[in-house]
Fold this sequence. Notes:
Blueprint lengths: L5 E2 L9 H9 L19 H17 L6 E6 L2 H13 L5 E6 L2 H13 L1 E7 L20 E7 L1 E2 L4 E2 L11 E4 L16 E5 L10 E6 H4 L12 H6 L9 H16 L2 H21 L6 E2 L10 E5 L3 H13 L2 E2 L10 E4 L6 H18 L1
Parallel strand pairs: 1-13, 3-4, 3-5, 5-8, 8-9
Antiparallel strand pairs: 2-10, 6-7, 9-10, 11-12, 12-14
Bound molecules: pyridoxal-5'-phosphate.
Amino acid sequence: MNKRAFNFNAGPAALPLEVLERAQSEFVEFRESGMSIMEMSHRGAIYESVHKETQERLLALLGNPKGYKVLFLQGGASLQFAMVPMNFLGQGQQANYVMTGSWAEKALKEAQLIGDTHIAASSEADHFMSLPDLDAISLSENPAYLHMTSNETIGGIQFKEFPDTGSLPLICDMSSDILSRPIDVDQFGMIYAGAQKNLGPSGVTVVIAKEELIANSPKHLPTMLRYSTHASNDSLYNTPPSFGIYMINEVLKWIEERGELEGIQVQNREKAALIYNTIDNSGGFYRGCVDAGSRSDMNITFRMESEELEKEFIKASVQEGFEGLKGHRSVGGLRASIYNAVPLESCKALVDFMNHFKKTHG
Ligand SMILES: *Cc1c(COP(=O)(O)O)cnc(C)c1O
Protein backbone atom coordinates (compact mmCIF):
# COMPACT_ATOMS: atom_id res chain seq x y z
CA MET A 1 0.00 0.00 0.00
CA ASN A 2 1.13 3.55 -0.69
CA LYS A 3 1.82 5.69 2.35
CA ARG A 4 -1.38 6.99 3.97
CA ALA A 5 -1.82 10.75 3.83
CA PHE A 6 -1.60 12.91 6.92
CA ASN A 7 -5.34 13.42 6.76
CA PHE A 8 -6.73 16.59 8.37
CA ASN A 9 -9.96 16.65 6.37
CA ALA A 10 -12.96 18.28 8.05
CA GLY A 11 -15.51 15.70 6.93
CA PRO A 12 -15.70 13.12 5.59
CA ALA A 13 -12.57 12.65 7.62
CA ALA A 14 -9.92 10.15 8.65
CA LEU A 15 -11.07 6.74 9.85
CA PRO A 16 -8.90 4.49 12.00
CA LEU A 17 -6.60 2.37 9.81
CA GLU A 18 -7.34 -0.62 12.04
CA VAL A 19 -11.06 -0.24 11.27
CA LEU A 20 -10.50 0.06 7.53
CA GLU A 21 -8.34 -3.07 7.54
CA ARG A 22 -10.88 -5.00 9.57
CA ALA A 23 -13.62 -3.94 7.17
CA GLN A 24 -11.42 -4.95 4.26
CA SER A 25 -10.95 -8.42 5.69
CA GLU A 26 -14.73 -8.81 6.10
CA PHE A 27 -15.71 -7.00 2.93
CA VAL A 28 -16.44 -9.89 0.58
CA GLU A 29 -17.77 -12.34 3.10
CA PHE A 30 -19.32 -11.37 6.42
CA ARG A 31 -19.57 -13.86 9.29
CA GLU A 32 -19.51 -16.93 7.04
CA SER A 33 -22.76 -15.91 5.37
CA GLY A 34 -21.52 -16.36 1.80
CA MET A 35 -22.04 -12.66 1.11
CA SER A 36 -21.03 -9.16 2.20
CA ILE A 37 -23.05 -7.24 4.75
CA MET A 38 -24.24 -4.97 1.93
CA GLU A 39 -25.89 -7.87 0.13
CA MET A 40 -27.99 -9.33 2.93
CA SER A 41 -31.48 -8.52 4.16
CA HIS A 42 -31.75 -5.91 6.85
CA ARG A 43 -34.45 -8.15 8.35
CA GLY A 44 -32.08 -11.11 8.69
CA ALA A 45 -30.49 -12.29 11.93
CA ILE A 46 -26.93 -11.35 10.99
CA TYR A 47 -27.65 -7.75 10.09
CA GLU A 48 -30.02 -7.32 13.02
CA SER A 49 -27.31 -8.41 15.44
CA VAL A 50 -24.92 -5.78 14.05
CA HIS A 51 -27.67 -3.14 14.29
CA LYS A 52 -28.41 -3.99 17.91
CA GLU A 53 -24.76 -4.34 18.86
CA THR A 54 -24.01 -0.86 17.50
CA GLN A 55 -26.84 0.72 19.50
CA GLU A 56 -25.81 -1.07 22.69
CA ARG A 57 -22.13 -0.28 22.26
CA LEU A 58 -22.86 3.41 21.69
CA LEU A 59 -25.01 3.66 24.82
CA ALA A 60 -22.43 1.72 26.84
CA LEU A 61 -19.68 4.14 25.80
CA LEU A 62 -21.94 6.96 26.98
CA GLY A 63 -22.40 5.31 30.38
CA ASN A 64 -25.73 3.58 29.65
CA PRO A 65 -27.96 6.58 30.37
CA LYS A 66 -31.46 5.50 31.46
CA GLY A 67 -34.41 5.95 29.11
CA TYR A 68 -32.49 6.85 25.96
CA LYS A 69 -32.81 5.35 22.51
CA VAL A 70 -30.37 5.32 19.60
CA LEU A 71 -31.73 5.96 16.11
CA PHE A 72 -29.91 5.54 12.80
CA LEU A 73 -31.32 8.00 10.29
CA GLN A 74 -30.30 9.44 6.92
CA GLY A 75 -30.19 12.93 5.46
CA GLY A 76 -27.23 14.07 7.54
CA ALA A 77 -27.21 16.46 10.46
CA SER A 78 -28.76 18.90 7.99
CA LEU A 79 -32.05 17.02 7.95
CA GLN A 80 -32.06 17.10 11.75
CA PHE A 81 -31.99 20.89 11.52
CA ALA A 82 -35.52 20.56 10.08
CA MET A 83 -36.77 17.44 11.88
CA VAL A 84 -36.07 18.92 15.31
CA PRO A 85 -38.48 21.87 14.92
CA MET A 86 -40.96 19.79 12.89
CA ASN A 87 -41.25 17.30 15.74
CA PHE A 88 -40.82 19.47 18.81
CA LEU A 89 -41.96 23.01 18.03
CA GLY A 90 -45.65 23.35 18.86
CA GLN A 91 -48.15 26.15 18.33
CA GLY A 92 -47.52 29.13 20.58
CA GLN A 93 -44.00 27.95 21.39
CA GLN A 94 -40.62 29.26 20.37
CA ALA A 95 -37.57 27.25 19.30
CA ASN A 96 -34.59 28.64 21.24
CA TYR A 97 -31.10 28.66 19.73
CA VAL A 98 -27.61 29.40 20.98
CA MET A 99 -25.75 31.07 18.13
CA THR A 100 -22.10 30.12 17.78
CA GLY A 101 -21.32 30.17 14.06
CA SER A 102 -22.10 28.66 10.65
CA TRP A 103 -23.75 25.44 11.81
CA ALA A 104 -25.89 27.07 14.48
CA GLU A 105 -27.04 29.54 11.83
CA LYS A 106 -28.06 26.74 9.47
CA ALA A 107 -29.98 25.03 12.26
CA LEU A 108 -31.80 28.26 13.17
CA LYS A 109 -32.67 28.94 9.54
CA GLU A 110 -34.54 25.65 9.23
CA ALA A 111 -36.46 26.29 12.45
CA GLN A 112 -37.50 29.70 11.09
CA LEU A 113 -39.17 27.87 8.19
CA ILE A 114 -41.23 25.85 10.65
CA GLY A 115 -42.30 28.29 13.36
CA ASP A 116 -41.32 30.93 15.88
CA THR A 117 -37.72 31.12 17.00
CA HIS A 118 -35.72 32.97 19.60
CA ILE A 119 -31.99 33.57 20.01
CA ALA A 120 -31.21 32.70 23.63
CA ALA A 121 -27.51 33.56 23.46
CA SER A 122 -25.09 34.58 20.75
CA SER A 123 -21.46 35.47 20.19
CA GLU A 124 -22.15 37.05 16.81
CA ALA A 125 -21.01 40.45 18.13
CA ASP A 126 -17.59 38.82 18.51
CA HIS A 127 -17.87 37.35 14.97
CA PHE A 128 -18.25 33.94 16.63
CA MET A 129 -14.60 34.03 17.68
CA SER A 130 -15.62 33.07 21.22
CA LEU A 131 -18.37 31.14 22.97
CA PRO A 132 -21.38 33.02 24.31
CA ASP A 133 -21.66 33.19 28.08
CA LEU A 134 -23.95 30.36 29.18
CA ASP A 135 -24.90 32.22 32.36
CA ALA A 136 -26.43 34.88 30.14
CA ILE A 137 -28.82 32.53 28.33
CA SER A 138 -32.20 34.18 28.12
CA LEU A 139 -35.03 31.91 27.09
CA SER A 140 -38.23 33.01 25.38
CA GLU A 141 -41.57 33.03 27.19
CA ASN A 142 -42.76 29.61 26.07
CA PRO A 143 -39.71 27.70 24.85
CA ALA A 144 -40.09 24.32 23.12
CA TYR A 145 -36.41 23.40 23.47
CA LEU A 146 -32.94 24.90 23.56
CA HIS A 147 -30.65 24.01 20.66
CA MET A 148 -26.85 24.17 20.84
CA THR A 149 -23.94 23.26 18.59
CA SER A 150 -21.27 21.68 20.81
CA ASN A 151 -18.45 22.25 18.34
CA GLU A 152 -18.43 24.75 15.49
CA THR A 153 -16.50 22.83 12.86
CA ILE A 154 -15.82 25.82 10.62
CA GLY A 155 -15.02 28.50 13.20
CA GLY A 156 -13.19 26.23 15.64
CA ILE A 157 -14.92 26.93 18.96
CA GLN A 158 -16.17 24.22 21.32
CA PHE A 159 -18.25 24.16 24.48
CA LYS A 160 -16.58 22.48 27.42
CA GLU A 161 -19.78 22.47 29.45
CA PHE A 162 -23.51 22.70 28.92
CA PRO A 163 -26.27 24.53 30.75
CA ASP A 164 -28.76 22.86 33.06
CA THR A 165 -32.08 23.45 31.31
CA GLY A 166 -34.19 21.57 33.85
CA SER A 167 -37.26 20.06 32.22
CA LEU A 168 -36.72 21.99 28.97
CA PRO A 169 -35.16 19.63 26.39
CA LEU A 170 -31.59 20.54 25.52
CA ILE A 171 -30.95 19.45 21.94
CA CYS A 172 -27.39 19.39 20.70
CA ASP A 173 -25.75 19.06 17.31
CA MET A 174 -22.60 17.10 18.19
CA SER A 175 -21.65 16.23 14.62
CA SER A 176 -18.03 17.21 14.97
CA ASP A 177 -17.18 16.21 18.53
CA ILE A 178 -19.41 13.29 19.48
CA LEU A 179 -17.48 10.61 21.38
CA SER A 180 -14.39 12.83 21.57
CA ARG A 181 -14.77 13.09 25.37
CA PRO A 182 -17.06 11.90 28.14
CA ILE A 183 -20.36 13.76 28.42
CA ASP A 184 -23.31 13.55 30.76
CA VAL A 185 -26.08 12.40 28.41
CA ASP A 186 -28.72 12.98 31.11
CA GLN A 187 -28.31 16.71 30.52
CA PHE A 188 -29.67 16.35 26.99
CA GLY A 189 -33.08 15.64 25.58
CA MET A 190 -31.48 14.74 22.28
CA ILE A 191 -28.04 14.58 20.69
CA TYR A 192 -27.52 14.15 16.97
CA ALA A 193 -24.54 13.81 14.68
CA GLY A 194 -23.76 13.11 11.06
CA ALA A 195 -21.38 10.14 11.18
CA GLN A 196 -18.65 11.36 8.88
CA LYS A 197 -16.51 13.23 11.39
CA ASN A 198 -16.11 11.08 14.46
CA LEU A 199 -18.25 7.98 13.97
CA GLY A 200 -17.81 6.39 10.57
CA PRO A 201 -18.59 6.98 6.90
CA SER A 202 -21.12 9.53 5.65
CA GLY A 203 -24.67 8.34 5.09
CA VAL A 204 -25.70 7.64 8.68
CA THR A 205 -27.01 10.18 11.17
CA VAL A 206 -26.97 9.06 14.78
CA VAL A 207 -29.66 10.34 17.14
CA ILE A 208 -29.54 9.66 20.88
CA ALA A 209 -32.79 10.81 22.43
CA LYS A 210 -34.93 10.48 25.53
CA GLU A 211 -37.56 7.88 24.71
CA GLU A 212 -40.42 9.99 26.04
CA LEU A 213 -39.37 12.90 23.81
CA ILE A 214 -39.55 10.90 20.58
CA ALA A 215 -42.50 8.64 21.41
CA ASN A 216 -45.26 10.86 20.01
CA SER A 217 -44.50 12.93 16.94
CA PRO A 218 -47.14 15.17 15.34
CA LYS A 219 -49.40 13.02 13.16
CA HIS A 220 -49.49 15.55 10.31
CA LEU A 221 -45.81 14.96 9.56
CA PRO A 222 -44.79 12.60 6.76
CA THR A 223 -44.02 9.16 8.15
CA MET A 224 -40.27 9.31 7.48
CA LEU A 225 -39.94 12.69 9.20
CA ARG A 226 -41.47 11.54 12.48
CA TYR A 227 -39.01 10.45 15.16
CA SER A 228 -41.73 8.19 16.53
CA THR A 229 -41.71 6.16 13.30
CA HIS A 230 -38.04 5.36 13.69
CA ALA A 231 -38.28 4.90 17.46
CA SER A 232 -41.15 2.42 17.31
CA ASN A 233 -39.53 0.47 14.46
CA ASP A 234 -36.07 0.48 16.02
CA SER A 235 -34.67 2.36 12.98
CA LEU A 236 -35.80 -0.46 10.71
CA TYR A 237 -38.93 1.16 9.32
CA ASN A 238 -37.20 1.29 5.95
CA THR A 239 -33.82 0.02 4.75
CA PRO A 240 -31.09 1.42 6.99
CA PRO A 241 -27.62 2.38 5.70
CA SER A 242 -26.38 -1.03 6.79
CA PHE A 243 -22.75 -0.83 5.74
CA GLY A 244 -22.32 2.55 7.45
CA ILE A 245 -23.85 1.22 10.66
CA TYR A 246 -21.50 -1.78 10.54
CA MET A 247 -18.59 0.66 10.18
CA ILE A 248 -19.77 2.67 13.18
CA ASN A 249 -19.81 -0.54 15.22
CA GLU A 250 -16.19 -1.14 14.27
CA VAL A 251 -15.24 2.45 15.17
CA LEU A 252 -16.94 2.01 18.55
CA LYS A 253 -14.90 -1.16 19.18
CA TRP A 254 -11.78 0.83 18.31
CA ILE A 255 -12.75 3.50 20.87
CA GLU A 256 -13.27 0.81 23.51
CA GLU A 257 -9.79 -0.50 22.83
CA ARG A 258 -8.34 2.97 23.34
CA GLY A 259 -9.58 3.42 26.88
CA GLU A 260 -13.13 4.45 25.99
CA LEU A 261 -14.05 8.13 26.08
CA GLU A 262 -11.67 8.98 28.93
CA GLY A 263 -8.76 7.53 26.98
CA ILE A 264 -9.84 9.19 23.76
CA GLN A 265 -10.12 12.54 25.51
CA VAL A 266 -6.56 12.32 26.85
CA GLN A 267 -5.29 11.57 23.33
CA ASN A 268 -7.36 14.35 21.80
CA ARG A 269 -6.11 16.90 24.31
CA GLU A 270 -2.53 15.89 23.70
CA LYS A 271 -2.95 16.23 19.93
CA ALA A 272 -4.65 19.63 20.21
CA ALA A 273 -2.09 20.98 22.70
CA LEU A 274 0.77 20.05 20.38
CA ILE A 275 -0.65 22.14 17.56
CA TYR A 276 -1.95 25.05 19.65
CA ASN A 277 1.44 25.30 21.38
CA THR A 278 3.15 25.45 18.00
CA ILE A 279 0.84 28.29 16.99
CA ASP A 280 1.28 30.15 20.29
CA ASN A 281 5.07 29.75 20.29
CA SER A 282 5.55 30.89 16.71
CA GLY A 283 6.08 34.54 17.63
CA GLY A 284 3.02 35.57 15.65
CA PHE A 285 3.97 33.70 12.47
CA TYR A 286 0.86 31.55 13.04
CA ARG A 287 -2.14 33.10 14.75
CA GLY A 288 -5.00 31.20 16.34
CA CYS A 289 -8.31 32.56 15.05
CA VAL A 290 -10.45 32.23 18.15
CA ASP A 291 -10.43 33.28 21.79
CA ALA A 292 -8.06 30.97 23.70
CA GLY A 293 -10.70 29.88 26.21
CA SER A 294 -13.12 28.85 23.45
CA ARG A 295 -10.72 26.75 21.38
CA SER A 296 -11.87 23.48 19.89
CA ASP A 297 -9.93 20.27 20.43
CA MET A 298 -11.33 19.02 17.13
CA ASN A 299 -10.93 21.83 14.59
CA ILE A 300 -7.93 24.10 14.96
CA THR A 301 -8.31 27.30 12.95
CA PHE A 302 -5.34 29.57 12.34
CA ARG A 303 -4.07 32.22 10.00
CA MET A 304 -0.83 33.65 8.71
CA GLU A 305 0.25 37.16 7.85
CA SER A 306 -1.11 37.13 4.30
CA GLU A 307 -3.30 35.04 2.07
CA GLU A 308 -0.31 34.56 -0.24
CA LEU A 309 1.66 32.97 2.55
CA GLU A 310 -1.32 30.77 3.47
CA LYS A 311 -1.57 29.62 -0.15
CA GLU A 312 2.10 28.79 -0.15
CA PHE A 313 1.69 26.90 3.13
CA ILE A 314 -1.12 24.79 1.70
CA LYS A 315 0.79 24.07 -1.50
CA ALA A 316 3.90 23.01 0.38
CA SER A 317 1.83 20.90 2.79
CA VAL A 318 0.25 18.94 -0.05
CA GLN A 319 3.69 18.19 -1.44
CA GLU A 320 4.66 16.76 1.94
CA GLY A 321 1.63 14.45 2.13
CA PHE A 322 -0.78 16.60 4.16
CA GLU A 323 -4.46 16.79 3.22
CA GLY A 324 -7.26 19.13 4.21
CA LEU A 325 -5.40 22.02 5.85
CA LYS A 326 -7.25 24.68 3.90
CA GLY A 327 -9.87 26.57 5.93
CA HIS A 328 -13.55 26.33 4.97
CA ARG A 329 -14.32 28.26 1.79
CA SER A 330 -16.62 30.61 3.74
CA VAL A 331 -13.87 31.87 6.09
CA GLY A 332 -10.52 31.12 4.45
CA GLY A 333 -7.35 30.70 6.47
CA LEU A 334 -6.13 27.34 7.68
CA ARG A 335 -7.75 24.54 9.62
CA ALA A 336 -6.49 21.25 11.00
CA SER A 337 -9.32 18.88 11.85
CA ILE A 338 -8.03 16.36 14.36
CA TYR A 339 -10.94 14.04 15.10
CA ASN A 340 -10.53 10.85 17.14
CA ALA A 341 -9.08 8.85 14.25
CA VAL A 342 -6.32 11.32 13.37
CA PRO A 343 -3.21 9.70 14.87
CA LEU A 344 -0.81 11.55 17.14
CA GLU A 345 1.88 10.84 14.53
CA SER A 346 0.01 12.96 11.98
CA CYS A 347 -0.13 15.83 14.48
CA LYS A 348 3.58 15.49 15.21
CA ALA A 349 4.30 15.52 11.50
CA LEU A 350 2.18 18.66 11.11
CA VAL A 351 4.02 20.41 13.92
CA ASP A 352 7.36 19.51 12.32
CA PHE A 353 6.10 20.82 9.01
CA MET A 354 4.83 24.07 10.58
CA ASN A 355 8.15 24.67 12.31
CA HIS A 356 10.09 23.96 9.15
CA PHE A 357 7.83 26.20 7.07
CA LYS A 358 8.30 29.01 9.57
CA LYS A 359 12.08 28.61 9.47
CA THR A 360 12.13 28.84 5.68
CA HIS A 361 9.50 31.59 5.32
CA GLY A 362 9.67 33.58 8.57
C1 LIG B 1 -20.70 18.66 9.21
C2 LIG B 1 -21.64 19.27 10.13
C3 LIG B 1 -23.02 19.35 9.85
C4 LIG B 1 -23.60 18.91 8.54
O1 LIG B 1 -23.65 17.54 8.47
P1 LIG B 1 -24.30 16.79 7.19
O2 LIG B 1 -24.22 15.38 7.66
O3 LIG B 1 -23.41 17.10 6.03
O4 LIG B 1 -25.66 17.30 7.01
C5 LIG B 1 -23.84 19.91 10.80
N1 LIG B 1 -23.37 20.35 11.98
C6 LIG B 1 -22.06 20.30 12.29
C7 LIG B 1 -21.58 20.82 13.61
C8 LIG B 1 -21.16 19.75 11.38
O5 LIG B 1 -19.85 19.69 11.67
